[in-house]
Design goal:
The structure holds 2 protein chains of 2 kinds.
Chain A: H1 2-15, H2 17-45, E1 57-65, E2 71-74, H3 79-86, E3 92-107, E4 112-120, H4 124-127, E5 132-135, E6 143-147, H5 148-155, E7 164-167, E8 171-179, E9 192-195, H6 196-202, E10 214-219, H7 225-245, E11 251-258, H8 278-305, H9 307-319, H10 324-356, H11 369-395, H12 400-405, H13 416-449, E12 459-463, H14 469-475, E13 481-487, E14 496-501, E15 509-515, H15 518-523, E16 528-531, E17 545-549, H16 550-556, H17 561-564, E18 568-571, E19 575-583, E20 598-601, E21 609-614, H18 620-634, E22 641-644, H19 645-653, H20 656-687, H21 689-697, H22 702-736, H23 747-774, H24 777-782
Parallel strand pairs in A: 4-9, 6-8, 15-20, 17-19
Antiparallel strand pairs in A: 1-2, 1-10, 1-11, 3-4, 3-10, 5-8, 6-9, 7-8, 12-21, 12-22, 13-21, 14-15, 14-18, 16-19, 17-20, 18-19
Helix pairs in contact in A: 1-2, 1-10, 2-8, 2-10, 2-11, 2-20, 3-7, 8-11, 8-20, 10-11, 13-19, 13-20, 13-22, 13-23, 14-18, 20-23, 22-23
Chain B: E1 3-14, E2 17-29, E3 34-38, H1 45-52, E4 60-65, E5 68-69, H2 75-85, E6 86-90, H3 101-110, H4 116-129, H5 145-157, E7 163-167, H6 175-190, E8 194-198, H7 202-205, E9 210-215, E10 218-224
Parallel strand pairs in B: 3-8, 3-9, 6-7, 7-8
Antiparallel strand pairs in B: 1-2, 1-4, 4-5, 9-10
The chains are: A alpha+beta, B alpha/beta.
């Protein structure tokens, strides 16, 4: 029986190649996204499984009950608890405290990079499986360890140990070591691990009971877990007693979590970074499932559209004694076969996606390949059963008498209105999605290639320490060099901050501060709208004249640009400076934010970057070697840090892989929508085959029939366009408004995209109608 | 006695009016009989055959098949009954296009849970008997009409039914092919298979022992040949 099913299913697939192709490809395109989410689910269970003592390492989590009795469960714990556990519990081998900090940026003078950071104690490396490739653990204040990946980003092939990275607020950090690459699936994921001493130095809150970090405990081998429970009870009561004396209302209760059982988070703990909660996984999966649902819906539609050709078989089988459930299973089995074939295709596509649009916020590999394959196959079988069930139920319902007499039309499910609205929804959804992606693409391209805010063209940055004058003098002699500006750090990254106020009676306002010279301002082509540029200077001392932007005037209330020139402001509480010029507001940081007040001042002590403007476009490699020759004269032992500004910023802003991934998703959504349309058009034309035959016998021409057939679908598409255009525009507008600096919604692209989508739909409709219209009427009528 | 129809009525209601498809049919068929049903188009021949074959229901009357009262049975039980005792042959052959000759003949056995080895033997016997061994791996589209109908008959007989129902089995065949099929029926009847056939041809009807003439859903007369 089974092999018979398989044979029929296979021959049917083979016989109707187009339909099989559409079905398999449709599901096959949707499946990789589901596979990807399944991998996310499995990898969520493969968290933190690489530490050396999995069975005796625990994280301490905290239940906090506040004064009204509301209990909140945190993944964090107070530092006091870690301190307590460290002393007086002989069965605890080690304990350690980890603090996660957000929003770190580190700078190697040239590049500013966002990094993901945690503060760790030395014991951290004994408890967890993070190993050093080079160097040693960070112990002293302002020391840190880097991951291998980030070490390469910052220092390339040079040895990072002993190098310096700087933080805009906390100053310079020495790299003490580089970690071996470790598995991404850890809640301790980070790019830098900073010494806890740094945290203690900079930490503002001294309250021992605040939930500032994570506590981990390593039990001695063979110790029973309930000992730890008892210790936690004791610590909690001690802390609660202390809290009571301080008349704090919060009460703590501690629990332990085995390190291998942190993820996924079923309890929805607060502060549980990098651990996916159940709802995260569900949302992730929901997206993929939605896509699969659309593809599955198409399978149903297409299969039913073809039901006529299968009806005879059903009739014959039933006459031969098949019971309904046997026929039902046969059709479900066929759907399962299609799903399994789609799985194969889907897996290939997944691998291609990994190759061509690797997006690092997904996990692309899981530890246990065997389990994931079982999950994949079970999943495909389930998809097949789901997609196959509706058509199977309908097909298996055929009465042999009717079928064999030929008095049956293709079957359908649901009302026509429902099916029509589904087609409209598919088109609206795909149009909007595609348009959003296009808008996103437009914005990224704008940010990556923008040259209006400040000049990036023909600019090369060289980072240096110490004296620069001789180097600058030599460099300027190079035939390609037009002008050399000096600046503390290039635009586009995090800048230093300064405090400004109108006079000593006022409150300080925060402003971005760049040490720059006149040539830098010229290089960046900043627009001075009042007053004049900084005066050219080679002096060693700080100038008392500054440039500010319009926003600074507004913040300080200095009136118009013209009025402000010549006025004085107080810089960092200690220095009175005169506004020499006002520059037009421009985006010097990220595009999401509106401009902050900006101060540019000639300050040679803070110059760290030479901003070289070349006369014309030069060849990077050649220019670099020329520059390098000069550089070697002054810095024989230091590698030249040289970068093409335009390229640098392009790389920073253009997320090529993410865009490709989004693009792929767009194509899939569109293909599925087109297939849905194809299904419904096919169904309609099959149903009207007899009518078409009669019309043709009556003398209707082919174009007249095509018109007749496509009329209702074109109406659907027009409705979809009517909804999608305004909605798409709004969605694009809302999205683009997230960026303070944007280049607007491109109406032309919007219209072009819609035209393309609807042209595709039109072709589909025409193709199918044409097929029906040119068929020989005698063929269609003979069977009646 | 193989089957017995008592006062069978079947109708459809169109616009509030009952149109009778079968009207007060009484028929008794003994095992080993060969019966022809004749009548003009729309007289209810095929409907009667479908009712006898349990593929179609009726609105009134009693139908006994062997020891079962068919009018009291559920669909599933009917299916159980006919797949065991009845074989069908159609004018349009109704072979499954995606299956080979061999597989088409095998189909009824699949639904009767016959073991694979036994199925093989039964199908081989049948192919042998109908002289179509050489064609067993061909698909229906590769056969002539007569050959297809031969396969259709083979499929109907594979499960060793007591009753063979044939709805104009020679309707789509030329006279020579038709004659061969009728000779085959005669032979089968001699071997003990009860046959009821619907036909338009007097000549083919004459193969049977008696002929039932229908008109407007009613038995006009029954003639012994």
């Amino acid at each position: 029986m089974f092999s018979n099913f398989l044979k029929v299913a296979w021959r049917n697939l083979w016989k109707n190649k187009l339909f099989s192709f559409i079905n398999i490809v449709g599901l096959g395109l949707a499946i990789p996204f589901a596979l990807l989410s399944l991998m996310q689910v499995q990898s969520a269970y493969e968290f933190d499984n690489f530490h050396p003592y999995p069975e005796r390492t625990f994280r301490i989590i905290t239940d906090v009950t506040d004064n009204v009795g509301t209990k909140t469960r945190y993944a964090l714990s107070p530092v006091a608890a870690a301190d307590q556990l460290q002393q007086g519990y002989p069965y605890i081998e080690k304990s350690t405290f980890v603090v996660r900090d957000f929003g770190w940026q580190l700078n190697n003078r040239l590049k500013t990079i966002d990094v993901n950071s945690i503060y760790v104690e030395p014991a951290f490396f004994d408890i967890f499986g993070f190993q050093f490739e080079k160097g040693s653990r960070p112990v002293e204040p302002n020391t840190l360890a880097l991951t291998k990946e980030k070490a390469e980003v910052f220092f390339g092939t040079a040895d990072p140990v002993g190098m310096v990275l700087s933080h805009p607020d906390y100053g310079d950090f020495t790299v003490t070591g580089v970690l071996k690459p470790f598995k991404r699936n850890t809640h301790l994921r980070s790019d830098v691990m900073i010494s806890m001493a740094t945290y203690k130095k900079n930490s503002k809150d001294s309250l021992l009971s605040s939930l500032s970090g994570f506590t981990y405990v390593l039990l001695k081998p063979g110790v029973k877990e309930k000992n730890l429970d008892a210790a936690l009870m004791a610590v909690a009561s001690k802390l609660n007693k202390q809290a009571a004396t301080l008349s704090l209302k919060e009460r703590f209760l501690f629990h332990k979590q085995n390190i291998t059982k942190l993820a996924p988070d079923f309890e929805d703990l607060r502060g549980n970074s990098y651990i996916e909660s159940l709802s995260d996984l569900a949302v992730n999966f929901g997206f993929a499932l939605g896509l699969l649902l659309l593809a599955g819906f198409n399978y149903v539609n297409l299969t039913l559209a073809r039901s006529l050709s299968r009806s005879k078989e059903v009739g014959v089988r039933k006459v031969a004694g098949a019971l309904r459930y046997q026929v039902l299973w046969q059709f479900i089995f066929e759907a399962i076969l299609v799903a399994l074939l789609s799985l194969v295709l889907g897996f290939v596509i997944l691998k291609l996606m990994e190759q061509f649009s690797y997006v690092n916020w997904f996990t692309w590999e899981v530890d246990n390949k065997f389990v994931i394959w079982i999950i994949f196959i079970v999943f495909a079988v389930l998809i097949g059963m789901l997609a196959g069930f509706i058509p199977a139920r309908i097909l298996s319902r055929f009465q042999p008498v009717k079928v064999l007499k030929g008095t049956i039309s293709p079957s359908s499910f649901g009302k026509m209105g429902l099916r029509n609205s589904l087609v409209v929804i598919q088109f609206v959804a795909s149009s909007i999605f595609i348009f959003l992606t296009a808008t996103l693409y437009g914005q990224f391209t704008y940010m990556a290639t923008d040259n209006e805010n400040f000049n990036r063209e023909n600019i090369y940055n060289i980072s240096f320490n110490g004296d620069y004058r001789l180097l600058q003098n030599d460099l300027v002699k190079n035939k390609s060099v037009e002008r050399i500006g000096l600046v503390s750090t290039p635009f586009g990254g995090v800048s230093a901050q300064c405090a400004i106020k109108k006079d000593n009676r006022e409150q300080n306002a925060e402003a971005s501060y760049y040490a720059a010279n006149a040539d830098f301002v010229s290089n960046m082509k900043l627009q001075v709208i009042a007053g004049k540029n900084l005066s050219p200077s080679v002096s060693d001392s700080v100038s008392d004249f500054v440039l500010v932007n319009e926003q600074a005037l507004r913040t300080l209330g200095l009136g118009t640009a013209q009025e402000a020139v010549g006025k004085t402001i107080v810089l960092n509480n200690n220095r009175q400076v005169t506004i020499q010029g006002v520059i037009k507001d421009f985006c010097y940081y990220v595009y999401q934010f509106t401009t902050k007040p900006l101060v540019l001042q000639y300050n040679p002590a803070q110059f760290h970057v030479l901003s070289i403007k070349t006369k014309t476009a030069v060849e990077d490699g050649l220019f670099k070697s020329e520059i390098n020759n000069i550089w070697k004269n002054y810095h024989p032992h230091e590698e030249l840090a040289f970068s093409n500004y335009q390229k640098d910023l392009y790389d920073r802003y253009f997320p090529g892989r993410d865009m490709r991934f989004m693009g792929m998703f767009c194509v899939v959504v569109l293909v599925i929508a087109i297939m849905g349309l194809l299904g419904i058009v096919t169904y309609h034309t099959e149903k009207r085959v007899k009518e078409i035959g009669i019309r043709k016998v009556m003398g209707a021409s082919v174009p007249a029939i095509i018109k007749e057939l496509s009329k209702s679908f074109i109406k659907l598409i027009v409705i979809a366009a009517g909804i999608a255009l305004p909605l798409g525009y709004t969605a694009g507008y809302v999205f683009i408004s997230l960026f303070a600096y944007n280049n607007g919604v491109n109406m032309f692209v919007l219209c072009l995209l819609f035209c393309t989508i609807f042209a595709l739909a039109l072709v589909t409709i025409m193709y199918k109608s044409m097929q029906a219209a040119v068929a020989n009427p005698v063929e269609n009528l003979r069977s009646e | 006695m193989l089957l017995n129809l008592k006062n069978i009525f079947k109708w459809v209601t169109v616009g509030g009016n009952r149109t009778f498809l079968l009207k007060d049919i009484n028929l008794e068929v003994k095992e080993g009989e060969f019966i022809s049903i004749m009548g003009p188009s729309g007289s209810g021949k095929s409907t009667l055959l479908n009712v006898i074959g349990m593929l179609d229901g009726f609105d009134e009357g009693e139908y006994h098949f062997l020891h079962e009262s068919v009018h009291k049975l559920k669909d599933k039980q009917k299916s159980q009954l006919y797949k065991q005792y009845i074989g069908f042959v159609f004018q349009q052959y109704h072979l499954i296009d995606e299956l080979t000759v061999y597989e088409n003949i095998e189909t009824p056995l699949l639904y009767q849970d016959v073991k694979a080895t036994e199925r093989k033997a039964l199908v081989a016997d049948m192919l042998d008997r109908f002289n179509i061994v050489g064609k067993k791996d061909l698909f229906p589209a590769q056969l002539s009409g007569g050959q297809q109908q031969l396969v259709g008959v083979a499929r109907a007989l594979i499960a060793k039914p007591k009753l063979l129902l044939a709805d104009e089995p020679t309707g789509n065949l030329n006279s020579k092919q038709g004659e061969e099929i009728m000779e085959l029926f005669k032979q089968l009847n001699k071997e003990g298979v009860t046959i009821i056939q619907v036909t338009h041809s007097e000549k083919n009807a004459a193969y049977a022992s008696r002929t039932i003439h229908l008109l407007d859903g009613r038995v006009e007369n029954i003639l012994a040949n």
